[in-house]
Amino acid sequence: MNIQQLDVRPETFAPGDIYKNVLFGTDGWKFLWNGGQRQFDHLMGAPVTSGSVENFVSSLKSRRTICAERRLPYMHMVFPSKPVVMTEYLPEPLSGKVHSLFGRHYRSAVEHAGLGDICLYPEEMLKAEKSSKQIFMPHDTHMAATGCAMFSELMIRTLGWTHDPQANMDTVKKHWLGDLAIMAGTNESVEEDFLRPNSRCAQLWNNRPSLTGNTGNIMIMHHPHAASSKRLLAIGDSFMARNLASLSTFFRDILYVRSPGFQPDLLDLFAPDAVITGNAERYLCRVAPDTEAESVLLYSYGLSNYSPAPDFTAALRAQLAYTHIPQV
């Protein structure tokens, strides 16, 4: 079995084939190869960009202080990469060579800075549960619905509350064309278990259809029958976004913004009861300081090709009026 980059798509793929940035593993499993973050390079030992560890630790300290001053529970989640957890499906040449980027470069610095209680990387938890629960999707980069529910329960518990999202959700089977299957053009749709809040009244507004990419993505979730009336500000990437449904079983209102940097302007406007930031492990290859972040709210403002749907605009306006104009 060899690792080989393919320029032309063969009739069938073999474990070790790489096509359009998709690595084919065993038993039909697929993994994101390198791309902009050079995922496997870093998982097999490549160093992170100079200053990344210092920037990561400094940002977490600053975020913790800002939230503490407002008496807001805060935590950061690093979502372990699929190749780190599902190692048994990697092609043979990579067996034993893939190791946690977070563990190699960040863990000791986080613990030395006293941030271990707010910065979580639950690699061992996922490995312990994967024999009995579906953690990742075979044809997708992201976690399966049960994996998301586990993460959401852990995040809620870290913030100081006890709640089991999956106990408040129904299982729905759907055929799913994963992002890796789409990238490779295999069009393999498989039946997956999805979870939805069992009250079936959670509402979601998303400006992603109005964007040319995922930068500037904002999502708003409102669940009137959530377990609490609390409000959550969630800042992160698509791995965080995949947790919104399970998080909404506890938080009545959630504002999600896609950003690698903190968004302190939203603390005044949205007035959350808790704050979660997070990132997929592969983004740790290069971490910029929070001082270089720009407001997600203003990122798309004024662009001629940005026309979000009226219902999204109304929902965002209402949520950001929570503190100063509550009648909205």
Biggest pleated-sheet summary: 7 strands, mixed
Strand content: 15-25%
Q: Give the low-pLDDT segments.
A: none
Summing up helix and strand content along with how strands pair, one would put the structural category as: alpha/beta
How many beta-strand elements? 13
Structural notes for this entry:
The protein is 29% helix and 20% strand. With 328 residues, it is α/β, with parallel strands linked by helices. The strands form three sheets. It has a seven-stranded mixed sheet with strand order 6-5-13-11-12-10-9, with helices on both faces. Strand 2 and strand 3 (22-24) form a beta hairpin.
Key structural traits:
about 325 residues; alpha/beta; four-stranded mixed beta sheet; 13 helices; about 30% helix
Describe the structure concisely for a colleague:
The protein is of the alpha/beta class and 328 residues long.
Write the layout of secondary structure elements.
Layout: E1 4-6, E2 17-19, E3 22-24, E4 30-32, H1 39-43, H2 52-69, E5 74-79, H3 82-85, H4 101-105, H5 107-112, E6 119-120, H6 123-129, H7 145-159, E7 169-177, H8 179-184, E8 189-197, E9 203-206, E10 218-222, E11 231-236, H9 238-241, H10 244-247, E12 253-258, H11 265-270, E13 274-280, H12 296-299, H13 310-320
